Amino acid sequence: MYLVALLAVLAWLFLRGGGASAAGDSGDSADGGDMSIAVRKISEAMAHMEGFFVPNSLPSRTHNPGDIGTFGGKVRGYASDEEGFTALDSYITSHAAKHPEWDLYDFVRYYLTGDTMGKAGAGQNPDEYADYVAGRTGLDPTQSIFSQLG
Question: Closest Cα partner for 88 from 138, 150, 133?
Fold first, then answer.
């Protein structure tokens, strides 16, 4: 999982132009960079949507802010909230790098159904979910997520 995330970040840096210059003026901040800040904002918005911040909710109890790996009733648990957020951040980063053409609607539909054309389950509305994330993050849901991360 970490290898995939590392490769996704390296691919993003390559496509972006190689990352920081020798002078260190990449535009990224010392706290992890603009990309990681944008990804964490998406993760936090998704965590709100998934009910992570509701005490005793399933995502809260499993330290899984994005409910990653809950297909078929199987819930993935993490050792800590930060480990769960790191996994969600990696999921977002790797999928944005692998599918740079995806807008937020494509990403959320894939996230919820496993297919950008997939049928949402009962109680799921991918478009409302994407609009919610866009509203909390300031992203344009019709533009490529990849292009908005940097």
Answer: 133
